[in-house]
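Posting here for the record, re: adenosine monophosphate.
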Amino acid sequence: LFPYTTLFRSETELLKKSNKSKKGKKEKKEKKQKKEKRSKGEEASKKRKREKVPATEPTAKKQKTAQTASSSAKQIVAYRKENRISVDTGDHGDDRAPVLSFDECKATFPGTSELLDAFCKGFTKPTPIQAQCWPIGLSGRDLIGIAETGSGKTLGFLLPGIVKLNAEVDTKPRKRQPAILVLAPTRELAMQSDIVCNEAAAETGIRSVCIAGGLDRGAQNQALKRGAQVVVATPGRLISLLECNECDLSRTKYLVLDEADRMLDMGFEPDIKKIMSYLPKKRQTVMFSATWPEEIRALASQYLKNPTKVKIGRASCRERV
Ligand code: AMP
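Prediction output follows.
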């Protein structure tokens, strides 16, 4: 009986051993799975964190409420209140302080110095739209300005565009390739912006061409051929020149949609869409409108990236349905 008992014992031990090793393997496997699960979870939470805060956000947040050379936070709040300026920074939180005087603008943004001397001689201080929109435009952000006509918005949008252009290596006018495009709903409005731009041409070296229906098309073609840094255009005539390769927007880096609500009222939406297809995706876009109805919001969300919205005065209450 003895050997059988020994055999039986050793068999039981073997069975126990094999069970133990099976158990050990199972535990090891479970441990490995747990570890993998944990590291996957950590990776996912890291990813969630990354997605929650886009790459560009920290820089924008760091720049929050950039100070000008001389205005205190108190003065800025008082100025905005007095001039009924409201600023909506959306998700980016990059709130730029207004420049309350030309000297303050020159000190804060040295690139504006000569341009202010050329464009603003005779004026005593920036209008509210200029004071608030210049620092935003100069930061390179897209911008929506809701303001009445006659508020000084032409220089409000031209100045940052020209400073941007002056920062380039080659600022000379290029044949048929404007650096700045201003789209306006009517010939009169386009001509006004063109005049403002060309008035300071001698001092600034910036040339502008007005491209609008009802004006000599041949002369416009010649002017584009000579070259101009700025094109101020109504949509219809511009499309006609684009389709004949007489104007090329592939190097345009600054786009202005002036009186955007009027452009939509006049049925220019398909034309705007077409013109957008000729423009580079990488550009700064500035849009001005006297009202802020749903169609304008839709237009802004389609063509502007992460813009700052500025409303000035009475225009801020007038929301056409
Ligand atoms: P706009 O809204 O750009 O058509 O400008 C309306 C009028 O305001 C024009 O006659 C401009 O010459 C004038 N203007 C522009 N900027 C200033 C300023 N800073 N101070 C006084 N008048 C200005």
